[in-house]
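Backbone shape codes
____________________
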Amino acid sequence: MIAIAHFIAISCYIGAAALAAVPFARPVAAPVRGVLGLLAAGVTAHAVGLMDFAFRSSSVPMTGLGPALSFAGAALALTLLVVEALARDVSLTLVAAPLAAIPTICANVIGLSPGQSAPGVRGVWLFAHIALSFVGIAAFATAAAAGIMYLVQHHELKSRRFGAIFRFFPPLATLDRVNHLAAIAGWLGLTLGVVLASTYSVAYHQLNLLQILWGGGAWVAATCIAGGRVARGWQAQRAAKYSSIAFGAVLVLYVAFRVVSPAAGQFL
């Protein structure tokens, strides 16, 4: 059941991206309902798979490497579904849906093996930290995806090419608004996650250097983007460029830490 649910979720995410790309192949209206339906079906199947895993393993689906990657994919897909439903647009799906599918695929290749869990209040504390951190990362990824699309659309306008990208992508103002709101949401989620992680480490005398470095690096990156937008008044193009670069750096840093980490089977 768990493997089938994940297969359905992955298929829906890839199918949503493919359906969103149809207007590039022929001049048709954006298939908003179809894409939203596929994303909703994927998120639902993903949630069912994670809940079945939690029931069978008696642990939250966040503590092992496989479960954590699967939860990250689900969080990103849910964030994408909410953003696209509110905007009534599906162009962001082209970038973000594959980003949701990739960690979900990796989770299934690695295997969904539960990691160490904690009972009682300690378990709730750990769950809240991980959940908020993943929500922050998902929002940060959304800001980066909107930033990439802004840069592509801006380049098309400067080049005076009014082809499929210009017709299909939302206006620059919409992409800028999504980038702005997602950057702030990402900073809030990561800030709460880092605070809970820090107090958890102090309270229970647990210290993981790689987790601290990566979590701190992600928080610094999100803080720079959100601070630049709110406090320094970064213009749309600058914010789009920096948010894309910053999120890419966070992903590269995670891969580097994952390679050198001695904790096999753990997120870090």
About this structure: The first helix runs from residue 2 to 20. The mean pLDDT is 87. The radius of gyration is 19 Å.
